[in-house]
Specification:
The protein has 3 helices and 3 strands. With 69 residues, it is of the alpha+beta class.
């Protein structure tokens, strides 16, 4: 899956950066990470990051849901 411009995103995004890319609020993004709806990884002791692929996979799931309605 390759979205226009997706390859220019860093490999790991902060939760805030992922929220920006998805055009959602920071609070919603943190809730989605906490619930596992969007995958994240722990970098160091406290640094939570969202892999670029996790953002693309989330978008793909949304697109799939849109097709099945």
């Amino acid at each position: 899956m390759d979205l226009a411009g997706a390859t220019t995103l860093p490999l790991l995004l902060t939760v805030e950066e992922a929220a920006e890319q998805l055009h959602i609020g920071r609070t919603k993004a943190f809730a989605m990470v906490k619930s596992g709806e969007i995958e994240s990884v722990l970098v160091g002791e406290r640094g939570r990051r969202v892999p670029r692929e996790a953002v693309l996979e989330y978008i793909a799931r949304l697109r799939q849901q849109g097709k099945s309605t």
